[in-house]
Automatic annotation (TrEMBL):
Family per similarity comment: Belongs to the Dps family.
Protein name listed in UniProt: DNA starvation/stationary phase protection protein
Superkingdom in the source lineage: Bacteria
Source organism of this protein record: Spiribacter salinus
Domain Ferritin/DPS: from-to ranges: 24-158
SUPFAM superfamilies hit by this protein: Ferritin-like
Listed GO MF terms: ferric iron binding; oxidoreductase activity, acting on metal ions
Amino acid sequence: MATPAVNIGIEEGARAEIAEGVSRVLADSYSLYLKTHNFHWNVTGPMFNSLHAMFEEQYTELATAVDEIAERIRALGAQAPGSYSDYQRLTAIPEESGAPEAMEMVRQLMRDHETVARTAREAFAVADGAHDEPTADLLTQRMQLHEKTAWMLRSMLE
């Protein structure tokens, strides 16, 4: 038996465009999760305790977020990307395979949170234009979180 068509009041083409934007948010979020977890494991120096704990708090929040984001993509009737090659193709977050010094980690994460906020803002415009309130709400929450986190990280660099 065929799967019933998605009929949530948003035209199929708009749903696909929204899902593409939200997929970029998912890829950015997952890439940022991975980078933050890497930094949690590998941070050193006089701020070790505070950064180690802060990075854990951040990657834990991101782990929950990626699930919510992926579930929204599925609710729109699209497949959620779930492979490293998908994320590499979709993300705007630069990979860090090494372990830079602690304040460079903070600097990179600040920029990366700003990147996710910008990606979410782009996707928000499409969702808002299609009157997709649930997606717009999700993206608003993500923008708020990433902008606040970027501010907190930026404050550490002053």
